[in-house]
Design brief:
This protein has 3 helices and no strands. Helices cover about 45% and strands about 0% of the residues. Helix 1 packs across helix 3. The relative contact order is 0.14.
Length: about 90
């Protein structure tokens, strides 16, 4: 049996792995949600600029599955990273 290839848009993902937040990386026919938009490089830059408490708060939000709040926070993170790099 050969493993399925992951699609770039997050649909029909194959495999049994989990992401860094402990969430399943399998999405047969549904979107993984807003967390999928958080690019690793943006997250890395944001982490460099924040303390452990703030990072933990983000972690707690991301594992909460509250997609509306996650989407809002990810948008804020993009804005914060843009401000750091101006």
């Amino acid at each position: 049996m050969t493993p399925m290839r992951s699609s770039i848009d997050g649909h029909a993902m194959g495999g049994t792995g989990k992401n860094i937040f402990g969430k399943s990386m399998l999405w047969e026919h549904e979107s993984p949600g807003a967390v999928y938009m958080l690019e690793p490089e943006i997250l890395r830059l944001w982490i460099q600029q924040n303390d452990a408490k703030t990072i933990r708060e983000l972690y707690d939000l991301l594992v909460s599955d509250d997609q509306e709040k996650i989407q809002k926070r990810i948008t804020e993170i993009f804005d914060e990273v843009l401000e750091y790099n101006q």
